[in-house]
Specification:
By secondary structure, this protein is α/β, with parallel strands linked by helices. It is built from ten helices and ten strands. It has one domain: P-loop containing nucleotide triphosphate hydrolases (Rossmann fold). The chain has a six-stranded mixed beta sheet, with helices on both faces. Strand 4 and strand 5 form a beta hairpin.
């Protein structure tokens, strides 16, 4: 579904990634973890070709290079992106936000409609007339995920989906990710929450200073506490 090989990338003349390697198989949830500022967001941006410039290596989606495409072309290939800052349209209602990306499904296998995302996040149905700018951070995160799903992605990228959220809301987001996993949506999740890794991940990659330094299953990661001590500051409570 996604393969990143020896990825180098920069913001202007400032290098951000120096050799990231990872892969996401169809239907798999992969967590990309590491301290703040080590390149997790830059890796996701390199996939969607946003802001960061790829200077070396490969980014392949279903065997096709994404390097050089415009962000809307990447999304059009079936990749959804939920950025850390959520980017809801603050002056629009929930219903209006969800109408922005809505379009006819690409085929019989495409199943995400406005009614379907309301079923995934019932709060959004209740608040569909509410202006997004006055919603809580958790509600905005649900809206951002729902809006991305309306493009009917086969691969979903989520950047720190639990950042700053209360534990109860984190549980709701984890439940939604597990349902998406059950629906067969492949996911690459930039994350620091041990709870999310244990609940959702099939495999884990650790990134440090723009380089992939570890790959393993959640069980292998948990059994090697030295990795966490050397490379991570991971939030046990998922906040």
């Amino acid at each position: 579904m996604l393969e990143i090989r020896d990825l180098h990338a920069a913001y202007g003349r400032s290098a951000a990634l120096h050799g990231v390697n990872l892969a996401v198989a169809p239907g798999e949830v992969v967590c990309l973890i590491g301290r703040n500022g080590v390149g997790k967001t830059s890796t996701l941006r390199a996939v969607v070709q946003e802001l960061v410039h790829v200077t070396g290596g490969a980014v392949l989606h279903e065997g096709v290079s994404l390097v050089g495409l415009a962000p809307h072309q990447v999304i059009g290939r079936g990749i959804g992106y939920v950025p850390e800052d959520r980017r809801v349209f603050a002056s629009l209602t929930v219903a209006e936000n969800l109408r922005v990306p809505a379009r006819a499904p690409r085929g019989a296998a495409s199943r995400w409609t406005i009614d379907a995302v309301y079923d995934l996040f019932p709060q959004l149905r209740e608040y569909r007339g509410r202006v997004a700018g006055v919603m809580s951070g958790g509600e905005q995160q649900m809206l951002s995920i729902a809006r991305s799903l309306l493009t009917n992605p086969r691969l979903l990228l989520l950047d720190e989906p639990h950042e700053g959220l209360a534990p109860k809301v984190v549980d709701e987001i984890i439940a939604a990710l597990l349902r998406l996993k059950g629906e067969g949506v492949s996911m690459l999740v930039s994350e620091q929450s041990v709870r999310t890794i244990k609940a959702c991940a099939d495999r884990v990659y650790v990134i440090d200073r723009g380089v992939t330094v570890y790959e393993g299953t959640p069980a292998q990661f948990e059994a090697d506490p030295d990795i966490a001590r050397r490379y991570l500051m991971v939030a046990e409570q998922g906040g």
